[in-house]
Design a protein that fits this description.
Elements: E1 8-10, H1 12-26, H2 33-42, E2 46-50, E3 53-62, E4 66-76, H3 82-96, E5 101-105, H4 111-114, E6 119-122, E7 126-130
Parallel strand pairs: 4-5
Antiparallel strand pairs: 1-2, 2-3, 3-4, 5-7, 6-7
């Protein structure tokens, strides 16, 4: 467990075995499962798993805010409400890593309605918040 949360660092290829079908069905951006697994294997991203799903985080040094985290992939295990149940714990993990800001891109509509007031939408597909 990381930072007293339900998250664990796992091998990306192992995690895909559980949720590959959901990942492929919901992916609409240029990243593929294979590219994401390779990012993790190179040490350019980390795959975090919890009972509610899998999140892949890529850390990026930023002159603007310091350390940023890009959520490269977030896939639930299928139970509704996974994001709501895990956001606070994910933010705790990111804070422990020294991350100051987190962002993700998606072309799926409706995210802003689900995200809390700490999130802001930048452009059509980019969402960001302070950690």
């Amino acid at each position: 467990m990381i930072a007293g949360t339900a998250f664990r660092i796992v091998d990306a290829r192992h995690a895909w075995g559980t949720i590959y079908a959901r990942t492929v069905r919901t992916r609409s951006d240029p990243w593929t499962c294979e590219e994401i697994a390779e990012l993790c294997e190179r040490g350019d991203a980390v795959c975090l798993s919890c009972p509610d799903g899998v999140v892949v985080i890529k850390l990026i040094g930023s002159e603007r805010v310091g350390l940023e985290a890009e959520v490269v992939l977030g896939v639930s295990s299928g139970k509704p409400g996974a994001y709501e149940r895990t956001e606070d714990e994910l933010m705790a993990v990111l804070r422990d890593m020294g991350v100051r800001s987190v962002f993700f891109r998606t072309d799926r509509v409706g995210w802003l309605r689900m995200l809390g007031p700490e999130w802001r939408q930048l452009g059509n597909d980019l969402y960001e918040r302070s950690v």
